[in-house]
Amino acid sequence: MMKKLLVALFFLCAGSAYALDGQEILKQVDRNLEPESSESLRKLINVEPDGRKKEFVLYSVRKGRDQVVGLFLAPESDKGRATLRQGDNMWLYIPEVGKPMRITSMQSVTGGVFNNADILRIDYTAEYNVEALAEDGDRHLLTLKAKTGEVAYDKLKMWVDKKALLPVAIECYAASGMLIKTLHFKDIKDFGGGLRRPATVETDSPLYKGYKSVMIYGQIKKREFPDEVFTLNYLSRVGELRK
């Protein structure tokens, strides 16, 4: 009897350590992708099956694990549009309307395969718990489960380079188990300040055959911002941060 109890205790402890290791890996992935407080400049490109492309230039800032503000600098038709994300809540500000409107994580302000949750991404640890950790050659395979029903994807499978602790690919699933899209992380680049991460994120989806969206980071750097930047009242003034 005592032997059985000791064996059960061993596996219970081993299981706890396993989950802790996965959570620590995910925390490190978050910090290796972006500092907690930072600004970035990136290009988003939507590619249609016939090869036509539409490009956007997005300036964005973030604070903490779950606050992000974005400002479109191009094309001219989208210039001045701003977005705010506070946890699961998102808004879009259009200068001509002059009033923020609610948007959802599964919509896309750019109309491509990337949805708003991809474009205004917050820390993975803010949205997901590590459900399982496995080894796949030189990569960790994390299975992540959404903490709430408000998160864009119910489950993620994330392959993480063991040496760099950076994501290589992420499969995004609906609660039904259907694969929604796959994100591919490429082109490791040194952004300075100790930040070395993939400069390119590509996505494709079985739901949009032939379509592809690409996100290319040109600049990421640490910068502190006051809390008022991450409020609805500040959306019309986000451009002032670049002066």
Which word captures the global form? globular
**Major sheet summary line:** 13 strands, antiparallel
Strand ordering within the main sheet: 6-5-4-3-2-1-13-12-11-10-9-8-7
Total strands? 13
Oligomeric state, counting identical vs distinct chains: single chain
The number of helical runs is 3
Percentage of residues in DSSP E strands:
35-45%
Mean pLDDT: 92
Class derived from helix and strand content: alpha+beta
Order of helices and strands: HEEEEEEHHEEEEEEE
Instruction: State the end-to-end CA separation.
Output: 72 Å
Description:
The protein is α+β, with helices and mostly antiparallel strands and 243 residues long. The chain has helices spanning 2-33, 116-119, 124-127, and strands spanning 38-47, 53-63, 67-74, 82-86, 89-93, 101-103, 128-136, 139-146, 155-161, 167-173, 179-192, 195-204, 212-222. The chain has a 13-stranded antiparallel beta sheet with strand order 6-5-4-3-2-1-13-12-11-10-9-8-7. It starts with a helix and ends in a 21-residue tail after the last strand.
